[in-house]
Design a protein that fits this description.
This protein is an alpha/beta fold and 411 residues long. It has helices spanning 2-6, 19-29, 40-47, 58-68, 103-113, 132-142, 164-170, 180-190, 203-233, 238-245, 268-275, 281-308, 337-347, 392-399; strands at residues 9-13, 32-36, 71-74, 82-85, 91-94, 97-100, 121-124, 151-154, 173-177, 198-202, 318-322, 351-355, 366-367, 379-382, 403-405. It has 2 domains: 2-204, Rossmann fold (3-Layer(aba) Sandwich); 257-405, NAD(P)-binding Rossmann-like Domain (Rossmann fold), CATH 3.40.50.
Length: 411
């Protein structure tokens, strides 16, 4: 069966933070892979063997995939045997309610609908509201396609930026098809390159599982962030408190930070809330706590500066911000609370410089080199705990300056 599946042609739709690593891995495994994206610059870059995102091991493996001719990027999907949809699923606001935006999924489906043939495998990896996979079948049926001949399944990605190439292989996967046959076939496909367990269920359970995983993490982060607010009011070091509490054998509190960003944890819980707000009050409240944390951080910075620089105009106060990405050691700015804080300070006319080791440039922010952190600044604000900031020499210098640490970087 493994040989039979690897003879199939694979089409990965969406060559972003998930699709490109997946397409690269599949080509390395031996599949002939067509990568599809709507961005012609991304297509050209990939076909030249240049990754447009920063991810350990991705660049060298992409170069090998292109050289082997097992991976080619296209704007339009060629006919294949296995189709994997890996497009974004953001949310939009409707009368103050955050609702999932599945437009990119259905656009991707429309793009491949004319290519589908009997026996094909259609897999949705994009995080989706419960019922989306079944909606794919309904749309295909309305287009006159006999969906009983197409194997449709949902298999959510479960990787973390910075370790995607490893986790695509090592992590367990959850597979849920619309039929038993679809589930079995999808499971066999993932078992050709996944070393973790591939666990079978139905489509709706698989969809809810992905949303549950990220909502669980969001709730736990919200607890830590709420503790930071309580500790600040009571003049308690939140990091010391959490370290002490975690010495209890059944307590494992996360570190507080400046909020939650990225395309998963900050988004997926809203998919649950939108479908059933009455029964998802804790999930909704956690989202609000984490969404409000950047505003609290900005206010703490402004309060500190008002006390330290009485009568000085904001434009004459120089702030250096450490980190702009949404988590340590990546270049991803999607939904970054650190970036939100930086832009808020700029809007208040503060002179803000940014050290982001994972970026060369970014429109709208003044990026400086790590070596220039301690030059010509009135306040250093720690927003993201990049590894470069954890060097002992750097921490020693930082501890001797005027700084505010919002992610527990300084011991």
């Amino acid at each position: 069966m493994e040989k039979f599946i690897k003879e199939k042609k694979v089409c990965v739709i969406g060559l972003g933070y998930i699709g490109l690593p997946l397409a690269t891995l599949l080509s390395k495994t031996g599949y002939k892979v067509s990568g599809v994206d709507i961005n012609i610059e991304v297509i050209n870059s990939i076909n030249e063997g240049k990754a447009h995102i920063v991810e350990p091991k991705l660049q060298e493996e992409l170069e090998a995939a292109i050289l082997s001719k097992n991976l080619i990027a296209y704007k339009d999907p060629p006919q294949s045997d296995i189709y994997i949809i890996c497009v974004p699923t953001p949310f939009f606001e409707d009368s103050g309610v955050k609702k999932p935006n599945t437009e990119f999924i259905f656009n991707a489906l429309e793009g491949i609908s004319g290519q589908l043939k009997a026996g094909d495998l259609l897999i949705l990896e994009s995080t989706s509201p419960v019922g989306t996979t079944r909606q794919l079948a309904k749309i295909l049926d309305e287009l006159g396609i006999d969906v009983s001949l197409i194997n449709i399944a949902f298999c959510p990605e479960r990787v973390i930026p910075g370790s995607i190439m490893n986790e695509l292989i090592q992590n367990d996967r959850i597979v849920g098809g619309l039929t038993k046959e679809a589930t079995t076939l999808t499971s066999k496909f993932y078992n050709t390159f996944v070393q973790g367990s591939v666990i079978e269920t139905d489509a709706e359970t698989a969809e809810m599982c992905k949303l549950t995983e990220n909502s669980f993490r969001d709730v736990n982060i919200a607890f830590a962030n709420e503790l930071s607010l309580l500790c600040d009011e009571n003049k308690i070091d939140v990091d010391e408190l959490i370290n002490l509490a975690n010495r209890h054998p059944r307590v494992n509190i996360l570190k507080s930070g400046v909020g939650v960003g990225g395309h998963c944890i900050a988004v997926d819980p809203w998919f649950i809330v939108a479908q059933d707000p009455a029964n998802s009050r804790m999930i909704s409240l956690a989202r609000e706590i984490n969404d409000n944390k950047p505003e609290w951080v900005v206010q703490k910075i402004k309060d500190f500066l008002k006390e330290e620089f009485q009568g000085v105009q904001n434009s004459n106060i120089k702030i250096t911000c450490l980190g702009a990405s949404y988590k340590p050691d990546i270049d991803d700015l999607r939904g970054s609370p650190a970036l939100e804080i930086i832009k808020s300070l700029q809007e208040d006319k503060f002179t803000a410089k940014v050290v982001e080791p994972n970026l060369i440039s970014h429109e709208g922010i003044n990026l400086i080199e790590l070596a220039d952190v301690f030059e010509d600044t009135d306040l250093i604000v720690v927003l993201v705990g990049h590894k470069e900031f954890l060097e002992s020499n750097f921490l020693d210098k930082l501890s001797k300056t005027t700084y505010l640490d919002f992610c527990g970087l300084v011991p």
